[in-house]
């Protein structure tokens, strides 16, 4: 199995350790992982702002970089969902269709494709899980609380296997953090208030760390925690699953 690692641009620029943790985690599963050096943005920021017609170059380059792989994996649910729904190229539509079906967010790849049932990691802290909207409502990584249906969560399934980790319960387990990509720029006051509410839920229940599958949401929460001078830290789920803290 040849796996291509897609590193979102904001991860590359601000949180490269998340990409490194994802690479190491995949390699620990015995996979051959490639990281195309010419990869760039998936085009989501433009599309979300109403300029999807300007993403053609991003789409073409993505196909050029990843068409050779059996699967593409990324530590970002929002980028993965965008590519699943919007990756098209009139000149290479067959390759685009193949990639739309073979790109996975990290936790869904580990649970659905690799069927991982044992995680060799240790993280002895109280952790709150932020279930991002794109992952939950778009990729169905976890069940939405408003539905009358059996609950499930692929991130929880993996975190529950981490030695020493105590996953806290939240009052509103699937509430939006308010980031929303360009939403946090266009509606900054609303975005900040939503983020403060999300942070407060974790703080009330004694979280030492907040984790999730989207570093963009965690970046938003990290900024609010920093402004509140809170000791609580954010950490991507890939870093937890790849950790061995004694």
From TrEMBL:
Gene Ontology cellular component list: cytosol
Ranges where the Cysteine-rich domain occurs: 3-84, 127-221
InterPro entries xref list: Cys_rich_dom (IPR004017)
GO molecular function: oxidoreductase activity
Pfam families associated with the record: CCG
Domain of life, source organism: Bacteria
Entry protein name: (Fe-S)-binding protein
């Amino acid at each position: 199995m040849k796996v291509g690692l897609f590193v979102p641009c904001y991860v590359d620029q601000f949180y490269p350790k998340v990409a490194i943790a994802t690479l190491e985690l995949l390699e620990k599963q015995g996979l051959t992982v490639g990281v195309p050096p010419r990869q760039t943005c998936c085009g989501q920021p433009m599309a979300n702002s109403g300029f999807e017609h300007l993403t053609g170059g991003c789409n073409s380059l993505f196909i050029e970089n990843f068409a050779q792989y059996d699967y593409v994996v990324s530590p970002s649910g929002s980028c993965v969902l965008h590519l699943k729904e919007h990756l098209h190229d009139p000149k290479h539509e067959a390759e685009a269709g193949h990639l739309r079906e073979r790109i996975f967010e990290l936790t869904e790849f580990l649970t659905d494709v690799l069927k991982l049932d044992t995680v060799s990691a240790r993280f002895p802290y109280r952790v709150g899980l932020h279930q991002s909207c794109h992952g939950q409502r778009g990729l169905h990584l976890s069940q939405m609380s408003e539905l009358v249906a059996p609950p499930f969560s692929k991130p929880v399934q993996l975190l529950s296997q981490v030695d020493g980790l105590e996953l806290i319960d939240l009052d509103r387990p699937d509430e939006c953090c308010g980031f929303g990509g360009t939403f946090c720029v266009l509606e900054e006051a609303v975005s900040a208030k939503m983020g403060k509410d999300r942070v407060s839920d974790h703080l009330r229940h004694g979280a030492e760390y907040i984790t999730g599958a989207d570093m963009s949401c965690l970046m938003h929460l990290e900024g609010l925690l920093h402004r509140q001078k809170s000791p609580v830290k954010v950490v991507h789920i890939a870093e937890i699953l790849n950790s061995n803290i004694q």
